[in-house]
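Narrative of activities, Objective 1.

The group set out to show that a structural description can be obtained from nothing but a protein's sequence at a throughput compatible with the screening campaign. Below is one input-output pair from the validation batch, recorded exactly as produced.
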Amino acid sequence: MRKILITLLILVLVGFAGWMIWKRFSPVDNVESRHQILVERIEAMGKLELVKYRLSDVVEHKNISTYLPDASVLLIVKADAVGCVDLSRITPNDIEVIGDSVTIQLPRPEICYVRIDHDNSRVYDTKMAFFREAQLVDAAYKAAETQIMKEVRQSDILEQTKSNALHVFRPLLEGLGYAKVNLSFAP
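Output recorded for this entry:
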């Protein structure tokens, strides 16, 4: 009996060592990827991005079920929100030059975009998700995006965009030789 156990132990050790050697020196699969990228559209852009908010959201998203245990996911979501002014909306009627003074009515600031940074966002934990994990995580990201957009709209991002626009345009126009610079925003 003892001989059989020793033989079994030796076989297991030799098998494990062989598996480790094979795993270490086995050929790596080659990966091939082909792409055919086509330019679909080219647009002229006139949006001057003036402020960027970096946001973090900790999301606990639950899927409450009648028959199955409640599934939940905990995410740490990072997002960027950018405020800008669309300079393509400026018309000649918005600019008035008299001698060494200039008056410009800039377009109303807007939120250019709110974008989740998936590279820096993480799924922190899942519970009882099993086969529903992908759907649960997707729903949690969508809920986070909706909440972040709501928070950005309630923030002072548009006021900060206005302030930054004044700080950018005033020195620029003064550098062009205008002694009196009057900047305002469309209602």
